[in-house]
Amino acid sequence: MAGYERSPDVQEVTKRYDESYGTHSRFCKFFERNEAAYRGFLNPRSNAAKWRHALHPPYALNLIETVVASTTEQGLLMGVKPSPKVNPTLEEAKAMLGQAESVEHLLRHEYRVDDMDEKQRPLALCAAIGGTGIGKTYWTWAEGPSTRNAVVDREVYDGFGNVIATVPTLEQITETKTTVDHSTTEIVDPRDFIIHEGAWALQPTQPGGAQYVIHRCWYSIEQLRLWEASGFIKNVDDLSVSRDQADEYLSRDKTIFGMNKRKDLVEVLESWCFERGQVHRTMVGNRCVLLREKEASPFWHGEYPFFTASITPGLFSPRGIGTMELISELQEMMWELGNQRLDVVELIANAITLIRSDVDDPESFDYFPGARWQVDDPSQVQYLVPPYQLAGLTLEAEQLLKGDLQNVTAAAPFTSGTETATVDQKTATGASIVMNAAQQSMAAKKWQFQKGLAREAEQRIKNLQQFITEDKLIHIVGHDGAVAFRSLTPRDIEGEYVVEIEPMGESLMRQERRAEALQLSQVLAQMAPLAQAMGTPINMQEVLKWALKMWDIKDADRFFSQVQSPAVAGMGQGGGGEGVPGAASLPSELAGQNLGITAGSAIDASSPSAAGGISGSPVTALQRALTMGGGANNV
Among 245, 262, 360, 419, fewest CB within 10 Å belongs to which? Predict the structure, then answer.
C-alpha cells in the first residue's frame, strides 16, 4: 500500500515469508501436480496426450482412496494414561490414576462434538497426496442471537385494566447466548502452511524444531470486522486500500477447479515464532497491515498449535512422503500405453486402403463388409497392415504396470494376478505371502498416521485443562450404545497425561473378540470327548456361558434347559469302566460299546468294516454317543 509505513512486526513477518517463498512455491507445485494426478487430470504437454486417443482414467484415485480408507478409523479410540514429566507426589500420582478415565471420557465427548471422525479423511488425503497432513488445534467460542419457541404466560385484562387471568401462549423468543464453546481441530491446506526451511521437526521443543511457522489464512472482510468489534484485531479498514493477494493463486485454482477459491477474501499471515524460550504470535493482513501485535502464545502447552500426520514420515524433515509420489509416473505410463494401444486397435479395425495412383476412379471402391472390387492387378488396391502385435505387447505392459500400482501402495496387491521375480501371486501360497506383506505395510502406515492424531489429542487435552473453568456436562456412550451423562469439574482433569493409540476401533475389537470366542468354543467342544476319556472332563456349560458373554449377553442361563438327556447326563462326571474309560458315568446301554476312541474288543483292522469301528476323531466319538443313546423323547 503506497504511503503506508510498515511496523517492525510486519517487516519481521514479511521477511520470513519472503525467505521461505521459493522453497514453499516448489512444494506447492509438487502438491498441485500430485493432486491433479489424483483427480486424473491430463496435462496437455504430457506424452500421454500426444496420441489420437487422449484418455486418462484416474487409476490413482481408487488406490489412494483404498489407502485413506485403510488408514482412517471411524470411532477412533484413544487411551489416556498418566505420564507426569517430573516426579509427582504420591497424592498427585494417585489422583492422576483415578482421573485418567474422566479425561478419556472427556476426550471422546469432544471428538463427537467436534466431528473428529469426519476430519480424519481430509487429513489422511493431504498426507497421501502431499506427504503430510496438517491440523490446527485451538478453542472455538462464539456468542450470538438465538431464536426459539417458548411458552409464556400472557396476561388478560378486563375493561378497567386489571389483570384477571394469564393464558399460556407459544411465542418466539430471541436471546443472546453462547452458540459454540468447545475444543476443535481445523484441517489446514498444506499449501497455506509454511515451515522454517531448516527445521527437522515441527515443535520448537523438539530437537531441530522449527524456529517459526506461518499459517496463511483467508477470511472475508465481514469476519475481520466482527473480530475487530470484539477487540481481537485492529486496523481492518486499512485492508480495503491494500493490494489483494488472492490473484496470486488464480491460475492454480482455475487449472483444476475452474474457479477462484479465494475470490473476495483477505490474506492474513498468522506467524508463530519461538523466541527466548517462548512461543509468540503476530497477525498481518495483505502483507502490510498489522492486525495483531506480537504477543506471547495464548496457549499454555508451550508449543505451536499445529500437528502433522504422515503415512510415511520423511527423514530429518517434518514433511513426509506421499503415496501419490510413488504412483503418479506409473499412472502416466499407463495412460500413454493405453492410448497407444487404442490407436493401434482403431487403425486395425479401420484399416487404411492403399490405392495406386494410376487408378482412374478411386471413389468407386465402396468400403463395406462383403464389398467386391474389380481390379486388373491385386496390387492396385491393398490394405495398410499396421504392426498389430503392438496391441498385445502394450496390453501385457499395462497389466504389469497395474500390478506395480497395487504393489507400491499395498492396496490389494495380488488381485491383478501378475507375477513378480520371486513370488507367483497366482497361487494361494504366493497370494498369502504378498497379502501378509501388504497388510503389515498398511498397518505400519496406519500406525504412523494415528501417531499424529495422538499428538493432536494431547494438545486438545491441554486446551481442555486451560479453558474449562467451571463444571462441564459430558455424554458418555457405552459399549451397547447406551448414553449416560456425567458432570466434570476442572479438578477432575488436572495432571499430565499421554495418549496411546488403541489397537483398533471398538466395533472391530468386538468382532475379533466374538470370532475368537466362537473358534475356541468349537475347539473345546471337539476336545470334550477326549478329555472325558482321559478323566479330565470339560465343563461345556461354563464354556458356552463365557462365549455368550463375549456377545454381550448377561443372562446366559436362559439358554440352558433344566431337563437333561439321559444319554449325556453323565458325560461331565468322569470315572472309569470296563469297555470305555469313563464308562461308569455313561448310561447302561452305552457301557462297553465302542465310541470311536478305543475299541472294547479286538477289531481286525484289515476288515472292510474296520473303518466304521475305529476312529481317532473326538467328533466321531461324540456323534456315536449321542446316536446310540438317543434323546429323551426317543427312549
Answer: 360
